[in-house]
């Protein structure tokens, strides 16, 4: 296991579609995920996608900490989930704005529209299929991480760039409105 270097916005590895994994149970994927888990924990992230550590493969990890879960019915705390070759399908056209950060865009946060309810599937490290429905933060973090596999960073999903800014400035502005907690809840 090792803490890996995180690619930052502008690096080509973050701009291309990642390759499908042929065998989720292979030793190479087990080792990759071990490094991703260690790197995410070190960076205090809620999720991480393989391209962020310069690996061009369709693998994401995430968790939903209790303090980030919202009141939505499918948004309960989730332990660490490994998703290989994930597929995300919106279950509604409804979207909502929520603040996101990204380990590849350090120091910034932005309000990003995301589908409020999704179904997602993929494979775990044991090769078993995972299929879940998610809403709230859970749905947001999955959409954010899976976007990385298609070369999309959250600023590219934003429709109002006036809602993009330095963490410190956004926190200060929200504190004035007593909403600073939303900065702490930003994804990944
Ligand atoms: Ni990210």
Structural features, described:
The chain is an alpha+beta fold and 188 residues long. It has helices at residues 27-43, 136-148, 167-176, 181-184; strands at 47-49, 59-64, 78-90, 95-100, 108-115, 117-123, 129-135, 164-166. The strands form two sheets. The chain has a five-stranded antiparallel β-sheet, sandwiched between helices. A three-stranded antiparallel β-sheet has the order 4-5-8. It is globular, with a radius of gyration of 16 Å. The relative contact order is 0.19. The model has no long low-confidence stretch (mean pLDDT 93). Residues 102-104, 144, 148, 188 line the site of nickel (II) ion (NI).
Task: Count every helix, treating DSSP H or I runs of 4 or more residues as helices.
Answer: 4
Strand arrangement in the largest pleated sheet: 1-2-3-6-7
Helix content, binned percent: 10-25%
Class inferred from helices and paired strands: alpha+beta
Measured distance between first and last alpha carbons: 21 Å
What is the helix/strand order?
Answer: HEEEEEEEHEHH
Number of E strands: 8
List cofactors, ions and other ligands. Answer: nickel (II) ion
Question: What does the radius of gyration come to?
Answer: 16 Å
Largest sheet: 5 strands, antiparallel
Approximate strand percentage = 25-35%
Rounded mean pLDDT is 93
Low-confidence stretches: none
- Gross morphology: globular
């Amino acid at each position: 296991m090792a803490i890996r270097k995180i690619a930052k916005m502008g690096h080509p590895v973050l701009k291309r579609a990642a390759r499908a994994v042929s065998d989720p149970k292979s030793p190479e994927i087990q080792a990759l995920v071990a490094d991703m888990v260690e790197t995410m924990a070190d960076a205090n992230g809620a999720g991480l996608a393989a391209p962020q550590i310069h690996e061009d493969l369709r693998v994401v990890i995430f968790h939903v900490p209790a303090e980030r879960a919202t009141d939505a019915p499918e948004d309960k705390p989730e332990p660490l989930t490994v998703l290989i070759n994930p597929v995300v399908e919106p279950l509604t056209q409804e979207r909502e704005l929520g603040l996101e950060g990204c380990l590849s865009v350090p120091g910034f946060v932005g309000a990003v529209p995301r589908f409020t309810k999704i179904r997602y599937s993929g494979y775990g490290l044991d090769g078993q299929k995972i299929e879940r429905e998610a809403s709230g933060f859970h749905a947001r973090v999955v959409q954010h991480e899976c976007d990385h596999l298609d070369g999309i960073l959250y600023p590219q999903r934003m429709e109002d760039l006036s809602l993009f800014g330095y963490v410190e400035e956004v926190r200060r502005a929200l504190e004035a409105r007593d909403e600073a907690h939303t900065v702490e809840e930003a994804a990944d």
